[in-house]
Amino acid sequence: MPGGRSTSNPLALAVLACLSERPMHPYEMASTMRERGKEHSIKLNYGSLYTVVDNLAKHGLIEAVEARREGRRPERTVYRLTDTGRIKLDAWMSDLLARPVKEYPQFEAALSLMPVLHPDHVLALLRERIRALEKEITMERLMLDTASKAGLPRLLLIEGEYHMTMQQTELAWVQELADEIEVGTLEGLTGWRHVCETGEQPEWDLDLSVLDSIQPDPEGGAEPG
User: Between the CA of residue 123 and those of 37, 167, 169, 184, 192, what are the distances in Å?
Assistant: First the structure.
């Protein structure tokens, strides 16, 4: 687990971040994350949390320091961050903040397979998505404004701000795509409609020679030849 980007579970990162503040038992970690609204950015459930904690301990990134009992509640194991865990946390955070990675959002997957549906149906679905995004953005803005007025500094709201910005960008892009489908200016629309209505594949006029001008980048990207 230590080193590189071999670890990819954001919940594990959140556990390390919690323990960088002070030793905690898993229930306290979960409560801390929820109090700070981290479940909006990191998928959190208790079953997964205990699995993550066990895995981090197995790899020496955290360690048990005591078993604590509060009232009549079951005994809970308190964990702390190890020196190895601190190094891992710093390296992992630095990597995530500095290097963009290829992610696989569900909407992108749906867009890649969009032609299996009729364009008119896709248009209706995109308009539905637009309405949903508008509602989500309104709610997100309200939550951020309320939190800001309550005195929370922007630093503690930054992931919400990022999420709203991404939603606003998506909304503008989806609106443009829907408009292009509606007025008939989307390139390839005629062939798409033909396939859906006749079952016959169109003949695309492709010039693949242009791909020869793109050379692989040693860092993993691509650069003009």
Answer: 34, 19, 19, 11, 13
Q: Which residue has the tokens 């998505």?
A: 129
Whole-number Cα distances in Å, 147 to 28, 37, 164: 23, 11, 14
C-alpha distances in angstroms, 22 versus 28, 36, 46, 69, 206? 11, 16, 20, 18, 60
pTM, 2 dp: 0.80
Angle at 15 between CA 88 and CA 158, to 5 degrees: 90
Task: Give the Cα separation of 175 and 131 in Å (integer).
Answer: 10
How far apart CA 59 and CA 54 sit, in angstroms, is 9
CB 171 within 8 A of CB 137: yes
pLDDT of 144-199, one tens digit each? 999 999 999 999 999 999 999 999 999 999 999 999 999 999 999 999 999 999 98
